[in-house]
Amino acid sequence: MTDSRASRHDSRTEAIMKAALDVALEVGYARLSIEAVATRAGVGKHTVYRRWCSRGLLFLDAVLSLNTEGLSHPDTGDVVADLRETMTKAVKLLAHPPWGPLYRALIGEAQHDPEVAAALNRRFIEPQTADTLARLKAAKEQGEIAPDFDLDLAFDILSGPLYYRLLITQQPVTDDYIDSVLRAVFAGMSPRSRPVRRRS
Amino acid sequence: MTDSRASRHDSRTEAIMKAALDVALEVGYARLSIEAVATRAGVGKHTVYRRWCSRGLLFLDAVLSLNTEGLSHPDTGDVVADLRETMTKAVKLLAHPPWGPLYRALIGEAQHDPEVAAALNRRFIEPQTADTLARLKAAKEQGEIAPDFDLDLAFDILSGPLYYRLLITQQPVTDDYIDSVLRAVFAGMSPRSRPVRRRS
Amino acid sequence: MTDSRASRHDSRTEAIMKAALDVALEVGYARLSIEAVATRAGVGKHTVYRRWCSRGLLFLDAVLSLNTEGLSHPDTGDVVADLRETMTKAVKLLAHPPWGPLYRALIGEAQHDPEVAAALNRRFIEPQTADTLARLKAAKEQGEIAPDFDLDLAFDILSGPLYYRLLITQQPVTDDYIDSVLRAVFAGMSPRSRPVRRRS
Amino acid sequence: MTDSRASRHDSRTEAIMKAALDVALEVGYARLSIEAVATRAGVGKHTVYRRWCSRGLLFLDAVLSLNTEGLSHPDTGDVVADLRETMTKAVKLLAHPPWGPLYRALIGEAQHDPEVAAALNRRFIEPQTADTLARLKAAKEQGEIAPDFDLDLAFDILSGPLYYRLLITQQPVTDDYIDSVLRAVFAGMSPRSRPVRRRS
DNA sequence: TTCTAATCGAGACGGTACGTCCCGTCTTTTT
DNA sequence: AAAAAGACGGGACGTACCGTCTCGATTAGAA
Questions:
Q1: In a domain, B91, yes or no
Q2: pLDDT tens across the length of chain D (200 residues)
Q3: Above 50 in pLDDT, residue C194?
Q4: How far apart are CA B106 and CA B94, in angstroms?
Q5: Which has the closest alpha carbon to C30: D166, D116, D19, D26?
Q6: d(Cα D100, Cα D123) in Å, to the nearest integer?
Q7: For the residues of A43-107, what is the DSSP string, one character each?
Q8: What is the mean pLDDT of chain C?
Q9: Which residues bind DNA (chains A, B, C, D) (predicted)?
Q10: What's the domain count of chain C?
């Protein structure tokens, strides 16, 4: 049995990330210490520091190691329905326990630590954004979106309100809220613009 | 004897908040310690703890003690122009040095500390929101906004993208960006909707 | 109305000393703080500091305020019996709970604070010593003590062993021990010297 | 490869005890703080707390680390002369600067802290006492001390007066005083007893 | 197999900051 | 005028973690 993958090195790495999540879930990221993580993982502190140069980056890896299977980017031909699906799934995963508080903490950490901010963008935000942008591009080509509409901006306008609720007002991000954002953004605030049809 | 109000108590309070801002600007909020603030303010640590029960709440008060004269909520009759003014001023104040990093740090702290989150909302977000909502309500009554448009939602859709850039992608929030958000939100993404006129 | 003795000032003083003893008995002198005493006495700290310039001197006064009625200096004509009485009473009072630990603490404090040491000597040790020295002098005149024996030294030799046990070895100072000290000191260690008669 | 014993651990321990003595000599034991000792030793506070659980026990170790070469327990056949030698040397070391004040402070601390008291007895008082008791035993066997004289008591009677002067009256303990104690104790106070010969 | 050489756990280490306690002084308010 | 109440600057407490640094004790691949 020539080594079942998961070299010693990798098994340590995983144990540490697992321990980091456990500790974060138990006492919150604010009180997560490298010492506690190392102890919990049954590992020397050095072994942690050898892999991550800051608490934030360890935490980032730990959070991103969670399976993102919950996220989906379908293309059924109906862009509003597809976006609703994407946003609903994402919100369900990112904005609710148990990962909601951790994701918020991660973004919070990014406000203090540029390295975390950069890595979070590069490794999570940008890939997810790219998928959605591709869907928006297809929609524009299908004539579902005005041809002069900047799609990057479209993404911001769709995502922004959800993050605003998550991070600022901390009001719950419900399916209805997502729905009303979609309707409003597609219709526009101006009275001349036409509303999209309500969800059946 | 009008008494030069600024009792000893108040003068300490101000000195501490001033010191907190100084320290935060010098080393960043992440490295701000109560100890350093107290020393800088020429005050015992207990004098700080007597007033604030956490670093976050002290920092919140310190940041909010800055004059918010930069913020404006005009009503010229042109809601888009007025919102542009409000948003531009707010962004100029909150998203750029020297206060930009501090405001971001404050929101970051709010992700870890529910008390900070609540206080930030109650003392800053909600009042500012109320002013803008009043302006949106007037606009709706004037027929500048579709009569069935939820104004709370409108506020989220306008603010969200700015916060998204500030907190997540960390791309600069320029006047042009604000402008394009306004146009997009008023016009809607749907191809049938009519664009608002471009800024002259 | 020439004031009914126990002016406000004196009543405070007594309340403070009482409180000091209470606190010392509860948590030990080592953990006695002026703040605790003041609070216990229902008095401002200033009122304590106005009367005593150190914790040690307050404690000294508090301990010495205890009635020393337990101490006696009889003169029955039998110097050994009289000394036995004096020493037994003193040890009973000073070396046993509840005052034993306090007296030890007071002497302990005197090792750190010269003012306490001086005051303790002047106000307690010397007066008690004087009484015993007077008794020894009478005994010498009666021929019960060798005429060339230095009485100051005699006092040291009688007291020393008791204090040695109290402060150093912390062995209990029993009546039997006092008795054997008296016998030994009167008889001398030298084999030629004659023993005093045993206590019946 | 004789290994220059003095592992890192031991070198810290010694540095801390040295620093403790330095600080105690400079500002007195009453004002000695763990913080100051650690700083002086160039060591973290935890490194001190890891070794000693109280200021008193650290101080005890520091004081006892002084070489006690000054103490001697000779046996020349003349018990009085030998005791005089032992007592004189001990007093010279323990009752005079620079160690006098520290030894007094140590005994003072023992009055507040039972752990210090116990350790002081076990590690210093008892060994020294044992040596002297052995000498007294030899003397008794040689007929220099009355055969029915309790030697433990003898030790108390010889030591007590010295400690009494050191701790209570704070009169200087001179060679003459030691001499007169010896004479008095050997001769006894009783007029019938015979004086030992005076020191030539 | 035997020997490097790396890795590991364990945790000591110098250091910073924590939040608390108490010092002795100073203010404020009440009586 | 004296008091209680307690705010104040300051110093130290004992603790928690930081990130670095020894330690031996496993490994594990190269000789």
A1: yes
A2: 334 446 788 899 999 999 999 999 999 999 999 999 999 999 999 999 999 999 999 999 999 998 777 788 999 989 999 999 999 999 999 988 888 999 999 999 999 999 999 999 999 999 999 999 999 999 888 888 888 889 999 999 999 999 999 999 999 999 999 999 998 888 876 665 444 444 44
A3: no
A4: 11
A5: D116
A6: 18
A7: --HHHHHTT-SSHHHHHHHHHHTS--TT------S-HHHHHHHHHHHHHHHHSSTTHHHHHHHHH
A8: 88
A9: 33-52
A10: 2
CATH of the domain at A127: 1.10.357.10
Chosen from A99, A109, A111 to mutate, greatest number of chain B CBs within 10 A: A111
A84 and A181 housed in the same domain: yes
Q: Tell me the chain B residues in contact with residue A191 when contact means C-beta distances shorter than 8 Å.
A: 143-147
D126 belongs to a structural domain = yes
Contact C193, D144 (CB under 8 A): no
Rounded-to-integer distance, Cα B54 and Cα B176, Å: 39
Same-domain check for residues B83 and B182: yes
Residues A40 and A85 in one domain: no
C149 lies in the same domain as C110: yes
Other CB atoms within 10 A of residue A33 CB: 12
The 10 Å Cβ neighbour count of residue C45 is 13
Confirm whether D124 is domain-assigned: yes
Q: Enumerate the H helices of chain C as residue ranges.
A: 8-27, 34-41, 45-49, 55-64, 79-94, 99-112, 114-120, 126-141, 151-163, 175-187
C1' (E2) to CA (D141) span, angstroms: 69
Cβ atoms within 10 A of the Cβ of D119, count? 17
Helix axes C99-112 and C8-27, enclosed angle (nearest 10): 100
Domain that holds residue B161: 79-187
| B199: pLDDT strictly greater than 50 | no
> Domain with B19 in it: what CATH number?
1.10.10.60
Q: Specify whether B25 is located in the same domain as B87.
A: no
Tokens (6 digits) for C83 = 């000394």
Q: Which residues of D touch C168 (CB under 8 A)?
A: 107, 110, 120-121, 125, 159, 163
Residues C128-157 have a mean pLDDT of 91
| A172 and A103 in a common domain | yes
The answer on D174 and D102 residing in a single domain is yes
**Residue D85 sits in the same domain as residue D56:** no
How far apart CA A151 and CA A157 sit, in angstroms, is 10
More confident residue, A188 or A183: A183
The nucleotide lying nearest B12 (C-alpha to C1') is F8
* CA of A15 vs chain B CAs: smallest distance (Å): 25
